[in-house]
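Narrative of accomplishments. A recurring question from our advisory board has been how the design workflow behaves on a single, concrete structure rather than in aggregate. To address it, we present the structure tokens for one chain from the evaluation set, followed by the sequence designed for it. No filtering or post-editing was applied between the two.
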């Protein structure tokens, strides 16, 4: 019997898990995919928004600003790549500059510090590659960029080391009310060879006093199983293009366009790892699994990004991807206990600025659950976590000594990103370690460079086979039916 079961191991579910670990609680996280950070949390703009866009008084506004303010301390405690690069919302000669004034007033009402509107002469000194039609912009110095993979994994690893259980490859099939709380029926999702053979997992149950619903685009499905207070989550697709590190200095701030009813518009931003990111589109889709990119979507990015930034080197695109945002019609987060389902807490409709708000959402939901269950603080909570060592941060003397002590750090596996075997070993053997190629990639960046894993995949697979250990037939790109090896060539 668990005190609380969290559905979803994205950034929100993982942040809630970490905050709950600060209490004396028997908690678990249930995730249908093979790893944490496999849904919206891995496919977004990687932005920590300042908080000027949300309507004052909404949860989006309050939690965005609070979450933003938590990031400096969190990045140090959990070793998360994070940088306050600041953001600019640009206005062109064809747009009404009063839109910037409205954003400025909203930002002030939300408590965003140091906002100001700059004119073109001052802007060009900061960002020489702004488009010729840009006349003015709103500067938000507290805006930042983060690695969403490491942010999610840091929350999850820290929760795990403090006693929270994680059930990965575990899909929630149904939820039923019970005298003690809830019975959750789950099945174990097959991966690799078993998935290719069409095997299905056996059903089992998890008993819990309370549930936290942090299931992203599927949050409405689980809420509507137990509550007559129905919610409806629309999947809003956003497509992106990622450019090579040679383009990473094209801009230094995150460059937004004036927002519309569909979102904050197409942005151009550096990433914490030195790339350049362009996107997203915003199209509502019926299919909650529609994470495919489209020619029309990517073409629209090419045309639209030039409105704010000139000469974006789109020939340097190394990959494209799409993510789904969990949009709710009232355009605000739903964070509350269901009125007719005691002990069922929703963290639903968490779209942008969900990544920015996640730390604050974690605190809010954990406090709600702790009050419900009358939980005491955990005196043994350990709030720090060390990320994977990046040898590039070491001096030459330190690196030589590391290789002498651990020769795996002298063996380069990914040539594009210069990732060593030592880093991959750490990714596999650390808490909630990687069990797929994408799991290794998100933790180490092996496979994220120009060749997009074309050269390093076989070597990474050999390491997974040896170290987990696991059969080569069961190694997947990202779980499920994404196995690489399906048989012997002589047999096929």
């Amino acid at each position: 019997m668990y005190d609380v079961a969290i559905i979803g191991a994205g950034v929100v579910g993982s942040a809630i898990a970490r905050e709950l670990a600060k209490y004396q609680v028997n908690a678990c996280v249930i995730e249908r995919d093979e790893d944490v950070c496999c849904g919206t949390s891995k496919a977004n703009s990687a932005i920590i928004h300042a908080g000027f866009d949300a309507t004052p008084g909404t949860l989006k506004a309050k939690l965005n600003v609070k979450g933003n303010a938590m990031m400096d301390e969190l990045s140090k405690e959990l070793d998360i790549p994070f940088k306050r690069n600041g953001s600019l919302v640009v206005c062109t000669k064809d747009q009404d500059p009063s839109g910037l004034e409205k954003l400025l007033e909203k930002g002030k009402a939300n408590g965003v510090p140091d906002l100001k509107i700059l004119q073109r002469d001052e802007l060009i000194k900061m960002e020489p590659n702004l488009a010729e039609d840009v006349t003015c912009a709103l500067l938000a110095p507290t805006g930042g960029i983060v690695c969403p993979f490491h942010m999610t994994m840091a929350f999850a690893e820290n929760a795990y080391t403090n006693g929270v259980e994680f059930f990965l490859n575990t899909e929630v099939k149904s939820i039923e009310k019970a005298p003690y709380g809830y019975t959750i029926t789950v099945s174990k999702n097959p991966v690799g060879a078993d998935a290719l053979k069409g095997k299905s997992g056996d059903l089992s149950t998890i008993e819990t006093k309370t549930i936290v619903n942090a299931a992203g685009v599927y949050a409405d499905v689980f809420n509507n199983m137990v509550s007559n207070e129905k919610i409806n989550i629309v999947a809003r697709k956003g497509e992106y293009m990622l450019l090579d590190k040679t383009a990473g200095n094209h801009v230094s701030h995150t460059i937004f366009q004036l927002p519309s009813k569909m979102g904050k518009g197409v942005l151009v931003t550096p990433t914490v790892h030195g790339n350049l990111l362009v996107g997203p589109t915003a199209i509502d889709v019926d299919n909650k699994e529609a994470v495919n990119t489209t020619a029309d979507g990517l073409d629209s990015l090419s045309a639209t990004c030039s409105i704010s930034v000139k000469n974006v080197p789109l020939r340097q695109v190394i990959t494209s991807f799409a993510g789904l945002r969990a949009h709710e019609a009232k355009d605000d987060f739903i964070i509350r206990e269901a009125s007719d389902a005691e002990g069922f807490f929703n963290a639903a409709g968490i779209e942008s600025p969900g990544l920015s708000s996640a730390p604050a959402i974690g605190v809010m939901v954990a406090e709600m659950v702790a009050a419900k269950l009358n939980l005491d603080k955990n005196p043994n909570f350990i709030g720090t976590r060390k990320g994977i060592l990046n040898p590039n941060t070491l001096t030459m003397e330190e690196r030589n000594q590391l290789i002498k002590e651990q020769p795996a750090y002298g063996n380069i596996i990914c040539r594009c990103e210069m990732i060593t075997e030592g880093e991959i070993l750490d990714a596999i053997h650390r808490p909630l370690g990687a069990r797929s190629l994408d799991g290794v990639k998100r933790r180490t960046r092996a496979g994220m460079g120009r060749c997009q894993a074309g050269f390093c995949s076989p070597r990474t697979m050999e390491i997974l086979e040896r170290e987990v250990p696991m059969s080569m037939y069961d190694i997947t790109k990202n779980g499920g039916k994404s196995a690489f090896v399906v048989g012997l060539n002589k047999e096929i």
